[in-house]
Amino acid sequence: MQAGGWLMWPLMLCSVLALAIVAERFWTLRERHIVPENLVAQIWQWEKVGHLDAKRIHELRRSSPLGRILAAGLVNREHEREVMKESIEEVGRHVTHDLERFLDILGTIAVISPLLGLLGTVLGIIDIFSAITVHGVGDPNFMAGGIAKALIATVAGLSIAIPAMFFHRYFHSRVDELVITMEQEAIKLVEIIQGQREQDMSN
Asked: Do 161 and 111 touch, CB atoms closer than 8 A?
């Protein structure tokens, strides 16, 4: 930290923040938490036995992101198919936004970290030339601090930016997969409730 100069402090903050976001997103974007298995089948069972009341729908809405989307459609299940789909799509946009939470920050860290490292490099070079101006080139010890600042800051910035960019892309891909799965489950529910699909939940 001392050798890299004061820019190591914002770089360290970026690294801690990036690590926290990665850990939080890994925990939050678990498939079984976002898309519980056999949820549509469970809803259909409730519907068949007459247990799909307002209390069940409220519990469903709070259970998972997929449950929140399906609950939006079930509230309007007495209406036409298009009304159900519109309500599902509206809530689906909010759910997608929640799934992408903090990813913009992670992407920003991936962009600014190498820039901070580059700034450290420039400041290190300035220190080198300042040392040359004052002491000449005879004693390399006066230039060592500037060289260390330049190299350490650059390496630190890249070491943060590379994994941050990797996880930013990974989590965006993960969210896309989860959204597609939730769309498929929502369409399945609409077609079953509207009687436009075989009520065989084994598929």
From this structure: yes
* Domain regions of the chain by residue span: 8-27+37-193
Distances (CA, A) of 83 to 33, 47, 70, 76: 27, 19, 13, 7
How deeply is 40 buried, as exposed, middle or buried, from its count of CB atoms within 10 A (0-12, 13-18, 19+)?
Answer: buried
Q: List, in order, residues 6 or more apart from 190 with CB less than 8 Å away.
A: 73, 81, 84, 85, 88, 196
Scanning the structure block, which residue is given the tokens 């689906």?
92
pLDDT of the chain, 203 residues: tens digit per residue: 666 678 889 999 999 999 999 999 999 999 999 999 889 888 888 888 877 888 888 888 898 999 999 998 888 887 778 888 889 999 999 999 999 999 999 999 999 999 998 888 888 787 777 766 766 665 566 566 567 667 888 899 999 999 999 999 999 999 999 999 999 999 888 888 876 554 444 44
| Amino acid type, 185 | E
